[in-house]
Amino acid sequence: MPPAARKLPRDFYARDTLKVARELLGMHLVHVGPAGRQVGRIVETEAYQGPLDLAAHSSRGRTARTDVMFGPPGHAYVYLIYGFWNCLNVVAAAEGTPHAILLRALEPVEGTTGTTHGPGLLCRALHIDRSLNRTDLLGRTLWIERPADYRMPRVSRSPRIGVNYAGAWARKPWRFFDRDSPYVSTVTAAARRKALARAAP
Q1: Do 69 and 77 meet the contact criterion of CB atoms below 8 Å apart?
Q2: How many CB atoms lie within 10 A of CB 13?
Q3: What's the rounded mean pLDDT across residues 1-21?
Q4: Position 173 in a domain
Q5: Distance CA 33, CA 141 (A)
């Protein structure tokens, strides 16, 4: 009998945040919501390690918005940017340590036809919004699992995107991505089309 997918346990998230951000690559994000069961393979993440990290929302302290980051690991932190895009983060590290990992890109796997090569785009495609903020990722609505057909990614890293305001913290190489995936957010549209055409049956 082939192995089954395994939902990631709490202790997966309750570890060093950079290690969690790296090891989320290749895992599947699953949302059972208004469009049924939707699944995407995680191919790009960014780690945020407040309160010292000036790029992290928690650098401003514990507020109504960031409270979930101070809570138990393995919960969803969903926030809105530009008044339009929802972004999904995974709370990591020990309770009381306000760290989180932004999911930046997915490869569509099941029930997902929208564009997923960006943090706001993947949330729109998987119908993830702020109603899912604080969701326990060990529940039955939104979770991350190691798939039965897990593929080990070839991991690259770089500075995070769009955090130039954070000074020296903007140069931290805390963005991780699968170098072989055409769904990474920084892949050009032309390169993505070419890669997807090659992969088509």
Answers
A1: yes
A2: 24
A3: 90
A4: yes
A5: 7
For residue 16 the two structure tokens come to 């060093």
d(CA 160, CA 2) in angstroms, rounded, equals 37
| Residue whose token pair is 């069961």 | 37
Contacts of 27 (CB under 8 A, 6+ apart): 8, 41, 42, 144, 145, 146, 147, 150
Helix then strand count (H, E) for the chain reads: 4, 9
Where in the sequence is the domain holding 116, given as residue range(s)?
Answer: 6-199
Q: What DSSP element (H or E) covers 123?
A: helix 119-125
Tens-digit pLDDT profile for residues 35-82: 999 999 999 999 999 999 999 999 999 999 999 999 999 999 999 998
> How many folded domains does the chain comprise?
1
pLDDT in tens, 76-120: 999 999 889 999 999 999 999 999 999 999 999 999 988 999 999
Domain CATH for 34: 3.10.300.10
In this structure, is residue 83 part of a structural domain?
A: yes
Domain-located, residue 62: yes
Nearest to 100 by CA among 146, 133, 140: 133
Whether residue 1 lies inside any domain: the answer is no
Q: Which two tokens stand for residue 182?
A: 């055409």
Closest listed residue to residue 186, CA positions, set 194, 196, 175, 197:
175
